User: Which sequence fits this backbone?
């Protein structure tokens, strides 16, 4: 363990894992996915995936990590299943792809902190120009990757833990404050209606597929991030309650981010909600206008602090994303941690350059691929998200369940969980988790994976 470090206590692990889960996924992509998915209908499917299907996968990932004390690829092998290494590698590749574009969006958030600090509220309407300015945004992204690498190089308990402890509660308090503010705005009710009253005609396969991908992405699941973090959990810790806390915290924060956003969208659109489905720019175009309405002084203060805290939330996620490939090369290639960190960070930053260029700067990357049957081309960054979030992560989750149930066997999974949970055997939760990993997750995630694959990339639409 000495080369890997460990969390100083149980709270350290939970906060770090929650720090990994809570990030841009909650505050940036959740609202825009809800907006694009027609509102409350998306929310319902999302909640179903998080609590019913993702939670068992989370428990399983943490259990595998704690059992083996290894990175994802090494973990399957250590349990005696050499062929399953490929699943670990799939996860590591997903992590690398996700971090490559995630870091670019983190750069946007950090850039908005600087812009709002100087009172530049017009940045909201200038979003598309801002993301095209690749030298500026590239510099922010570079700074972001540098800070991420610096924290990861300091080792697990030194960096990750300390950062999560102070910043998360501050961010939550701030979002709650903004929820109250946005509820006082004109048309707030229309926004809440859009968010909370489902229109089931919106419920298409693609909405369900996006909700599934978003659930995995937001909970940091399906790629072994929590196998890596689970490898740092003590044997006496209760994995089930830890996973429940992480899931609730993550879903809760996404939920309140939605409560904050949609009344603001309603306010800015006179209740029409037009533009709620605009995609990745949603928070970046809407929030500056709302901050401006707080007045010049308060607007600058709250606006810049919000984007600063969002950057920190992103940082605890980028740290966990980088940790996955780093743990892999430290364990498997016997490279020193410090070197491993800087090598991986450099590679991933370079892999992020096409994403950076794909927001208008380069025609080639901005219209990178046209899926079969699609009207418009998809940018490289959206393509990377479709591949990693919506395809690889749910596939990873499905395969992790299959691995636990049919290769490692539920008996061993149960034994590992029971170490820190004395009444676990025979409990309802044991029965549910076993049912989920053996039947529910493989079936539902497997089917959804196939259907979304066919639809997204090959234009086969069933409903
Ligand atoms: N869960 C993070 C977020 O919601 O922003 C993103 C993420 C982090 C995904 C770590 C996957 C991961 F392994």
Assistant:
């Amino acid at each position: 363990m000495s080369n890997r470090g460990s969390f100083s206590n149980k709270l350290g692990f939970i906060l770090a894992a929650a720090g990994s889960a809570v990030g841009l996924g909650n505050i940036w992509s959740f609202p825009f996915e809800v907006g694009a998915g027609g509102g409350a209908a998306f929310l319902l499917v999302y909640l179903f995936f998080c609590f019913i299907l993702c939670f068992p996968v989370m428990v399983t990932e943490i259990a595998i990590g704690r059992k083996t004390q290894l990175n994802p690829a090494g973990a399957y092998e250590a349990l005696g299943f050499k062929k399953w290494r490929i699943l670990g590698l799939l996860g590591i590749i997903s992590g690398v792809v996700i971090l490559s574009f995630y870091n670019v969006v983190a750069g946007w958030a950090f850039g908005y902190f600087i812009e709002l600090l100087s009172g530049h509220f017009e940045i909201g309407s200038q979003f598309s120009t801002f993301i095209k300015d690749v030298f500026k945004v590239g510099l922010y992204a570079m700074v972001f990757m540098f800070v991420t690498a610096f924290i990861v190089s300091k080792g697990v308990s030194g960096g990750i833990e300390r950062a999560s402890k102070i910043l998360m509660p501050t961010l939550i308090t701030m979002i709650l404050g903004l929820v109250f503010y946005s509820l006082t705005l004109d048309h707030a009710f229309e926004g809440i209606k859009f968010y909370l009253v489902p229109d089931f005609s919106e419920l298409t396969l693609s909405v369900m597929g996006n909700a599934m991908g978003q659930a995995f992405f937001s909970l940091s699941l399906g790629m072994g991030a929590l196998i890596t973090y689970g490898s740092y959990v003590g044997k006496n810790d209760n994995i089930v309650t830890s996973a429940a806390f992480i899931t609730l915290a993550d879903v809760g924060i996404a939920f309140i981010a939605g409560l904050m956003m949609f009344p603001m969208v309603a306010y800015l659109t006179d209740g029409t909600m037009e533009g709620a489905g605009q995609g990745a720019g949603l928070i970046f175009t809407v929030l500056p206008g709302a901050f401006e309405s707080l007045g010049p002084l308060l607007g600058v203060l709250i606006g810049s602090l919000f984007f600063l805290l969002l950057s920190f939330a992103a940082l605890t996620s980028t740290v966990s994303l980088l940790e996955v490939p780093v743990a892999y090369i430290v364990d498997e290639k016997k490279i020193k941690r410090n070197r491993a960190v800087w090598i991986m960070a450099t590679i991933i930053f370079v892999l992020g350059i096409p994403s950076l260029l794909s927001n208008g700067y380069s025609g080639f990357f901005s219209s990178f691929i046209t899926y079969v049957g699609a009207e418009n081309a998809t940018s490289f960054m959206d393509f990377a998200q479709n591949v990693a979030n919506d395809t690889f992560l749910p596939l990873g989750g499905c395969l992790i369940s299959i691995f636990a149930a049919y290769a490692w066997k539920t008996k061993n999974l149960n034994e590992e969980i029971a170490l820190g949970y004395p009444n676990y055997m025979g409990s309802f939760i044991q029965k549910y988790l076993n049912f989920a990993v053996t039947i529910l997750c493989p079936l539902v995630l497997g089917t959804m994976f196939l259907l979304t694959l066919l639809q997204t990339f090959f234009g086969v639409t069933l409903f």
About this structure: The radius of gyration is 21 Å. The mean pLDDT is 92.
